[in-house]
Design brief:
It is a single chain. The strands form two sheets. Strands 4, 5, 6, 7, 8, 9, 10 and 11 form an eight-stranded mixed β-sheet that branches. A three-stranded antiparallel β-sheet has the order 1-2-3, with no helix packed on it. The chain has three helices and eleven strands. The protein is globular and about 60 Å long. The protein is α+β, with helices and mostly antiparallel strands and 208 residues long. Helices cover 20% and strands 38% of the residues. The chain folds into two domains: 43 residues, no CATH class; 152 residues, Nucleoside Triphosphate Pyrophosphohydrolase, CATH 3.90.79.
């Protein structure tokens, strides 16, 4: 068993917060003190925080056809990437007030891929960049029938232009680190699928 850290949130004193920016995204500057490993308290420091919130990402897999569905869309943060700013990703979206992560997973599968899963497995959650951002992602694997999947989807009012690609699982998993999948959510989901693919196929072949 992995030992938990000795310190928790009660070992942090928030002195004050200042809102630095607020439009589609929000940035705060937080002034705080926290306990040091020798048991003393450090002097007050200021840290900028990109306030992003919680999100969900879903890798889509058909264990009968052994196909993975990935979405492709333009990403401003990838402008300088060697392959350009259109990225292969898993379906993803932000939690809205009153939603659970599973609610978002089902909603985003419909909005971004026009797919309705017949089974969903929770993978894990992680902090995308805790050094300066509070974004927390919940990862799922959605099992779908991909025999008639594909096309271009997304919400027009949100400026989305999302293309769904069907790829043989063998090809995707043999090329995880070739640069085509250059975001953490996709890589973690696909690594999980690599570890669980045989089990999912076996369960699909012998449903209980």
């Amino acid at each position: 068993m992995i030992k938990k850290p000795d310190y928790t949130a009660v070992d942090v004193e928030i002195v004050r917060r200042e809102e630095m920016y607020k439009r589609f995204f929000r940035v705060e500057k937080i002034f705080l003190r926290h306990k040091l490993f020798d048991g003393s308290w450090r002097q007050e420091i200021g840290r900028e925080l990109f306030v992003r919130g919680e999100a969900v990402a879903v890798v889509i897999y058909d264990p009968v056809l052994d196909l993975i569905a990935l979405v492709e869309q333009f990403r401003i943060g990838a402008l300088n990437e060697p392959n350009g700013p259109w990225c292969y990703e898993v379906v993803a979206g932000m939690l809205e007030e009153g939603e659970s992560p599973s609610d978002v997973a089902y909603r985003e599968l419909i909005e971004e891929a026009d797919l309705r899963p017949y089974h969903m497995e929770y993978i894990c959650n992680y902090l995308s960049s805790p050094g300066g951002c509070d974004e927390k992602l919940h990862l799922y694997c959605g099992l779908c029938d991909l025999s008639h999947a594909g096309g271009v989807f997304g919400l027009q009012e949100e400026g989305e232009d999302i293309r769904v690609h069907l790829m043989p699982a063998k090809d995707v998993l043999e090329n995880l680190y070739g640069g085509a999948f250059n975001n953490a959510a996709a890589l973690i989901c696909l690594q999980w699928l690599q570890l669980n693919r045989a089990r999912l196929q076996q369960q699909a072949a012998s449903p209980t």
